[in-house]
Amino acid sequence: MEAVNEIRRAESFPEVSRPADCWYAAYTHARHEKKVAQQLEERGIEHFLPVYRSVRRWKDRRKELDLVLFPGYVFVRLAVTERLRVLQLPGVVHFVSFNGQPAALPGGDIEALRNALMQGVRAEHHPYLNVGRRVKVAHGPLAGAQGILVRTKTNCRVVISIDAIMRSVCVEIDEADVEPLF
């Protein structure tokens, strides 16, 4: 009966996020992100490992590599009660936590970044920013994401920061697609 009351309370407040709808950051051993993502895939756990293409040059050749956008982290979407399934994987150290509880990440930013990367938007690692002109992306693949506007001479970039892990990513965007946050 108690479980039925919990479900009814959750349904009566649609803005409250249900545990299964939350993204969490799993911290991994150094350079184990792709292996952890493969293990999560094998176990059917929803995850997100953002990567970007980079050209590396050596004396005799050039090679395109897929590098991890947030080194040391894999994003996992699951109920907080199921976190043991992830922590048992070799290569996973712990979840990013506050006061002993895994910290839920802003789902809108993670989903927008995931959608943008799937549609081929070019993203790059950027130093962590938390001060600047805050904007919201209104249109395009990143719709719904919030970030900091950075202008260069020829184009406009939005830096999306994930505060829980203190990392940022920079994406080029059309200036008409953003609107200021007040």
Catalogue the unreliable spans: 1-19
Q: Largest sheet at a glance? A: 6 strands, antiparallel
Strand content: 35-45%
In total, the number of strands is 15
- How many DSSP helices? 4
Task: State the strand order across the main sheet.
Answer: 10-14-13-12-11-15
Oligomer: single chain
Summed over residues and divided by their number, the pLDDT gives a mean of 86
Shape descriptor reads globular
- One letter per element, helices H and strands E, the order comes to HEHEEEEHEEEEHEEEEEE
End-to-end gap: 44 Å
Describe this structure in words.
With 182 residues, the protein is of the alpha+beta class. It is built from four helices and 15 strands. The chain has helices at 2-12, 33-42, 83-87, 107-118; strands spanning 23-28, 47-48, 51-57, 62-68, 73-77, 92-95, 97-98, 101-102, 104-105, 123-126, 134-137, 146-151, 156-162, 167-173, 178-180. The protein has a six-stranded antiparallel beta sheet, covered by helices on one side. Strand 11 and strand 12 (146-151) form a beta hairpin. The termini are far apart.
